[in-house]
Amino acid sequence: MTTSTTPVPTLTQTQAFSQVVSLRIALDHDVRQESIANLNQLLVDTITLRDLYKKHHWQVSGPTFYQLHLLFDKHFEEQNALVDLIGERIMILGGVSLAMAHDVAEATLIPRPPKDREASPAQIERLQHAHEIVLEEARTIARLAATNGDDGTNDLVVSNVIRTNEMQAWFIGEHLAVLASF
Predict the structure, then answer these.
(1) Is residue 17 part of a domain?
(2) How far is CA 109 from the centre of its chain?
(3) Is 27 exposed, middle or buried (0-12, 13-18, 19+ CB in 10 A)?
(4) Could you give the CA distance from residue 41 to residue 90 in angstroms, rounded to a whole number?
(5) Which residues touch 109 (CB under 8 Å, ≥6 apart)?
(6) Does residue 32 lie in a domain region?
(7) Count of alpha carbons within 13 Å of 109, Cβ hemisphere only?
(8) Which tens digits make up the pLDDT trace of 12-60?
(9) CATH number, position 176
């Protein structure tokens, strides 16, 4: 594999990460700034949860392999849709969405999994813990957004993030009951 020695041209920055651009969406700058910060944290944790699902999709084994393999991939796709919705909401509010793996790894609250292949009960426990982290922060964000009059953020978080994560946590949690019976 060859690597290019040609330097990447410096492009003009259009918006600094910490900058909130002025948008005419009838929300105060400070409200938008708080929602952007909260949503960026939710975004990096949702990206991490999404990627945990793909890791476990590839590495699952055991008597429920087929069911979990399909379920983990389905949940990955659902989390991927949430990533897009959250990232776009940040941009709608005038912010800059965190998007690169190194930024996600630096900021996520979800513990990093081992590189090793884990047994499916450990995978499920890890996913449940990640869902709990996302749900705790989502509930806080929803309350703050409602208090601040940021109805768009509140609706996104309640209607999409909380409902999807509650459903997924339930679905994977039920697999622990099945595994305990083997």
Answers:
(1) no
(2) 11
(3) buried
(4) 11
(5) 41, 45, 133, 137
(6) no
(7) 17
(8) 778 888 888 888 999 999 999 999 999 999 999 999 999 999 999 999 9
(9) 1.20.1260.10
d(CA 138, CA 105): 19
The pLDDT-based confidence of 173 (bands split at 50, 70, 90) is very high
The mean of the pLDDT values for the chain is 93
Question: How big is the CA angle at 83 (ends 14 and 140), to the nearest 5 degrees?
Answer: 100
Whose tokens are 């998007």? That residue is 99
Tell me how far apart the alpha carbons of residues 57 and 126 are, in angstroms, rounded to a whole number. 13
Identify the domain containing residue 82 by its residue range. 42-180
Q: Is residue 103 part of a domain?
A: yes
Amino acid letter for position 151: D
Q: Measuring CA to CA, which residue among 129, 134, 124 is closest to residue 55? A: 124
Answer yes or no: is 157 within a domain: yes
Q: How many domains does the chain have?
A: 1
